[in-house]
Write a structure and sequence with these properties.
Number of strands: 0
Structural class: mainly alpha
Radius of gyration: 18 Å
Mean pLDDT: 82
Low-confidence stretches: 287-302
Number of helices: 13
Shape: globular
Length: 302
């Protein structure tokens, strides 16, 4: 698979996550955000593990717990707390800072050199997202801001460690995603029942919404996402994450009948320009267009 194809396939993950807001507001019962996170992760993760018929071994038990906690178990509660304490636009604007966080963590943990062009693309992309999602009524809440920053930092660190640790020899991307979804879901299980209590009665729309989140937004998206993280320069998926608020905004206009302003159009154009420019900035000079499969030459860890 060449670099362009891999990038486009990886981009399907944040595009799928961009549907979460519409599905949540239109189909799911209100007041149960942790239940949505639990049903998005645990059933899909267990199904993937059963299908792959592979379990972690040795040191990978601990690593999967760390990755599942960062990418799923910590991210979902912090995301939902931010959504409750902040307007959606402010929370999404904070999420737009993730490429900058990934760049910084990549330099600290992986020793990757920060390229000025990549840093510029991250800054411009974050500004574009802010134009798309921020409105004049945006309000700030310190607890909400801390939760939002904590969430994007957790997933940023999860991306970096996913890149550093790779995956064990002979383990495919479905099993690898299933491990993390299951670990994160098990961490969410007691928290969900402690905070929200028993689940409410669900109608057909809610069942479809949870099914969508568990499949397209769960196992499929995370399988593509983790594979892309391992095979692409770390800034590439960091920038692709900006697609999520853009897709959410477009769906709000096309499906929910929300208004769309010239400022938002400009923000989308700026964000897409940053995404495209960032891909060229991240391409190593003189490297071939194809990318090796990391499962063929895994990181030497067990």
């Amino acid at each position: 698979m060449n670099r362009l194809t891999l990038t486009l396939v990886t981009a399907l993950a944040p595009a799928a996550w961009g549907t979460t807001y519409l599905v949540t507001t239109e189909l799911l019962p209100a007041g149960h955000p942790l239940l949505a996170g639990l049903l998005r992760s645990l059933p899909a993760g267990l199904l993937a593990v059963l299908l792959a018929r592979r379990l972690p071994h040795g040191a990978w038990w601990g690593k999967v717990l760390v990755l599942g906690a960062l990418n799923i178990g910590a991210f979902f509660p912090l995301l939902f707390l931010a959504a409750e304490r902040l307007p959606g636009g402010v929370a999404a604007a904070v999420a737009g800072a993730q490429p900058l966080i990934v760049l910084g963590l990549g330099a600290l943990v992986l020793g990757e050199r920060i390229r000025p062009a990549s840093a510029a693309a991250a800054v411009v992309g974050a500004g574009g997202v802010a134009l798309v999602v921020l409105g004049p009524a945006a309000a700030l809440d310190l607890c909400g801001l801390i939760a939002a920053l904590g969430g994007v930092t957790a997933t940023g660190l999860g991306m970096i460690l996913t890149k550093r640790w790779g995956r064990p020899s002979g383990v495919g991307p479905v099993a690898y995603a299933g491990w993390q979804l299951t670990a994160g879901g098990l961490l969410l299980l007691p928290l969900t029942f402690a905070v929200e209590g028993p689940p409410p009665a669900l109608d057909a729309g809610a069942l479809f919404g949870y099914l969508w989140l568990a499949t397209a937004g769960g196992i499929i998206a995370y399988t593509l996402w983790f594979r892309g993280i391992q095979r692409l320069p770390v800034i590439v998926p960091g920038l692709l994450a900006l697609l999520s608020p853009v897709v959410a905004t477009l769906l709000g206009v096309l499906v929910a009948g929300e208004s769309f302003t010239p400022v938002q159009v400009a923000g989308i154009v700026i964000t897409l320009a940053a995404l495209i420019g960032g891909q060229f900035a991240a391409r190593p000079r003189g490297t071939p267009a194809t990318t090796a499969d990391p499962s063929a030459a895994p990181v030497a860890v067990r």
